[in-house]
Batch of 2 targets.
Target 1
Amino acid sequence: MAHRWKNDLTQADVTPEAAYLNRRHFMAGLAGVGLASIAKPALAEGLEPNSWEEITSYNNFYEFGTGKGDPAEYAHLMKTDPWTIKIDGMVDRPGDYGFDQVMSEMTVEERIYRFRCVEAWSMVIPWNGFELADLLNLAGVQEGAKYVGFETLYRPEEMPGTQYPVLEWPYKEGLRLDEAMHPLTIMATGIYGKPIPNQNGAPLRLVVPWKYGFKSIKSIVRITLTDKEPPTSWNQANGREYGFYSNVNPEVSHPRWSQASERKIGGGLFAKRVPTLMFNGYENEVAGLYEGMDLAKFY
Amino acid sequence: MPVVDHLNTTLRKLPSWVLYAVGAVYPAWLLYQGLIGGLGVDPVKVLEHEMGERALQLLILGLAVTPLRRFTGLNLMKFRRAIGVLTFFYVLLHLLVWLVLDVQILSQVWADILKRPYITIGMVGFVILLPLALTSNNWSIRKLGPKWRTLHKGAYVAAVLGGVHYVMVAKGFQLEPLIYLAFIVGLLAVRAIGSGRSLLRKSVHG
């Protein structure tokens, strides 16, 4: 199991914590004298992972509020132990799977992925996790299953943001089965080798690196195999703006903003926008999944 | 109302340049914070949002001056010009942050203004405010005479556009922008009812 996909980023690309802390000081010092623009190291050319602070302080997790800092402030209220994932629908072994039980069966590896939010900002995140395919195989996907639906925990007393009807709770997401089984699709349980913080979707969340971030549903409590396209929260809230597929695509605009370029988080005030890549740079790996489909229609 | 009287006395002593000074220092301080990492990991969005939200708050304050005086006796009349000019200044900074730091690409900026309704609406609001800011001086008031009052009613239109712009930016169903819009519409309604009444009074008294 696992290691079916070869990472083009390696451990060497992960900035050691001490180094990025140093760099922050360095940058802050330079910024003070107005030299921030020359402070970017050459590594930033390609895919330098964002710092722990950036990844864990700037989140969209509307169950804890709509501000980017709200999840970091309130997500500690969420109890993640014990945690069970209900796997049901078209599977051979439906049931409640304990988080520890799942972890004992999975091979955790590191995946350094680009992360592109539908709001046109991006990060690079060194996830730790296992392939979703392995979890689905654990439950045994039945013949005829075509889609996978996911649900986030909905516990209003631990999630202050859910008192507002920003979206329909619980948060729901979905994938086509072939997308779910793709080796790039993982369940992340850690970042930088540490357990994933609550604001990033503890104890386990989906990561589909070629789709907009909101597809990568957090704090999953239910996985349902079906033969029909499952309803998804953002699509229900505004189908014109958020399609079921939501593949990163620089050529298909969000109705309210262009998706042609993105702002890389961590570059400071004067960071240049960079062009957004087709399928977020994973075109070689995933374009085949959508052969013959009109991506402007199935956005 | 002794509290209001006290406030009015204190406010009378406060020169309006203090408002201009505070209003000018705040964005500079934010920019500095952005440079030294004090605005979190996405300083561009914080600056953009902060300037936009402060502009809306100033718009609301400006609209509230007359009703506040009528219903509570609180007199902010002498600060109204400063509030108005600062509103425009913050809208301008909001626009500049969006243009220079956020979108960056000029062709993209034009495309957005033409293609994205919430940006179109925001831009129209800005264009309406521009002549208002330029004529916020005694010379213009003298020169334009009664036309000045008519021109400056544009602030009402800009306020509604600003509120709608904020509502349209929000993702999902969010309360805060709706509260802003409700304040704006509410204050305009109070004004409309008020002026309706005074018209009535005028006609009764011939």
Note: Residues 2-204 of chain B form one domain.
Target 2
Amino acid sequence: MIQVNGLSHDFVLGKKNQRTTLSVLKDISLQVDKGEIVTVVGKSGSGKSTLLNLISGFIRPTKGDIWIDGNHVSDFSEAAFADLRLNKMGFIFQNFQLLPAMTAFQNVELPLTLSGMSAKNRRQLAGEMMEKVGLKAYQEHYPSELSGGQQQRVSIARAMVLNPPLIMADEPTGSLDSDTEAELLALIRQLNKEIGITFMIITHDEEVARIGDRTIIIKDGSLVEAGASV
Amino acid sequence: MKRKDQLQFVIQNLKKHKIRTLMTVIATAMGCAFLIVLASVGFGLQQTVVEDTLEQQAVTEIDIHGKGKPEEGFQPLTMEHVQNIEEIDGVKAVTRRNHLGQVPVFLVDQHEGQTGAVSAHFPSEIASGMELAEGEFPEEPNEVLIGPHFSQALIPTDANEQEVYDEQGMVKEEYQYEGSLLGKTIDMKVTKQIDGEEETTTIPVEVTGILQEPTREWMQDRKVYMTTDLLDEIAAFTGTPKGSPVIGEGMEADDTISEVKVYAQNLQAVEGITEQLDEKNYATYSVVSEMNQINVLFTIAKAGLILIGTIAIVIASIGIYNTMTMAVTERAPDIGIMKAIGANPKTIKRVFLLESSLIGIAGAVIGTVTAYIVSFGVNLGLPAIIEASFGEELPEGLQFSAIPPMLIFIAVGICLIVTILSGVRPAKRATQIDVLKAMRREI
């Protein structure tokens, strides 16, 4: 599903004439197979979020190649990457990243709207997804009216609604308490088993890392361990 | 993302900032209304001038002053020229009139008056559309037509000239000729001078018809229109061309025509005929050429007014730019999230352009309605205000402001272009928002 070859990324810091280059990722090569749950762990600042941002197309690599579902995305345009994210990827963020002016239902419906689906189909699919994450009763609530766990469920429903083959999660339990975290991890495992969705989860939490079929460890921008399949 | 969904999304966003949106729409509407009202003055006055010109003159009439090049001077026309002109396609009639070389005295029922006389070729006058208020066209040499104000030239023969006229030089009511002159025989006194001695003859003429009133109230027609045979008779008496009392230099063999007018079959034919006459070096003047000059002048004036009005819209567009920039800044986190989950940059750009366009459309619609109301008010109230303030009576039918559909198209077009353009930069900025920075609320 994901293949990364010799991926490096540098951040340029400082003002003009005083610029310094900070190497965040160094020559990373890895592979994520279809239907796998891969967790990426590492200390804060190790470069694990940068790896997710590079694979998601939020930033462009300094060097190296990325393939997603057979597409060489390293030279994709902004628009092509947007289409790829919409159709083949779902995202779960630590801070949920829901649109505060939209209800839970409208947030879940948003990817369907962006894909140009008819209103009738949108309502049906978004409704089904709200039911699947157990928030049918809260669909008219705004994010500010929901708990952290509920917001993350909305975020998962939004990530799942277009039925993408790949979900990228960046510290998905970072803002949740331990009970909600357990619920969420169970949900991820369920979705992986039932639908076969590939998950790439960035975390520094060992509990979360344990749900992965494989764990990739990154230290100071380098791949320490690609992890063996469980 | 479908257009309908984009529109719904935009409306939802605009509703969130009702006051800000309303203020921006009002500013745009004011700019649009200002442009329309300003330019409408140009359109209104042009309409008034054009209508005034058309009322004064027959639109199918072409005056021919002579033939030749301006630098060499114009030569008067002769019958040969008239026959040539009659052969041009689209010509309905060519009238030719000769002014009598003297101003004769007319006598009827103890009243007399001195007024000009012209000879006319009545068949061509009839073909040109000359109409009588009453009576018939002359058929015999000694029959004449009179202008509708001919009787005002007559005063009683025994009256004291100093008492007869009022301050404006008009004959006082009590001295005016009463009754109709139609069918009456008038004595026409013409003179000639031989060796300094004056000799007079009286020619009785019968009034067979009275011409219609001129189109304008202030125009006066006191002339007598006689046959060419009668002019020949007078010329035979005086022994001079056109009946002049004395013979002047170069008048011995005068076969020229004083006044030649060409009448086209319709308004469309006027331009073609004028072009052909110009090619043949005839000096022409028609209402069409006057209209062209008027239109050129007013087009320049209107363009100037539209340009000034556009400045108001440009100022309003600064408001739109500001509103859109604020919208992009405020919504940066939302835009970041949308981009992260797969919103195409083109979609984001379109949403923001749609937002500025909606503000522009709302401003244009409100501005147009306002402009119509202001224009109506100006046409209704301004004449009364001017009359009350300056004590001057304005001409009837004067229109200060007119809003033709073309002006609406121009104003709405300018308004939309300017407002869309003012939304382009903020929209482009929205597409360039960094997803990670936006999601971290760093923008």
Note: The longest helix of chain A spans residues 178-195.
